[in-house]
Amino acid sequence: MKDKIISKATEMFLKLGFKSVTMDDIACEMCISKKTIYKFFTNKEVLIEEGNNVFHEKINNGMNEIMANSKNAIQENFNIRNMFVEMFKVADKSPLYQLKKHYPTIYEKVITQETEVCTECFRQNILKGIDQGLYRKDIEVESYVKFYYTLIFSINETTVLEKDASKLELQALEYHTRAIATPEGIKELEKQLINHNI
Question: Which structural domains are found in the chain, ordered by start?
Answer without folding.
Answer: 44-195 (1.10.357.10)
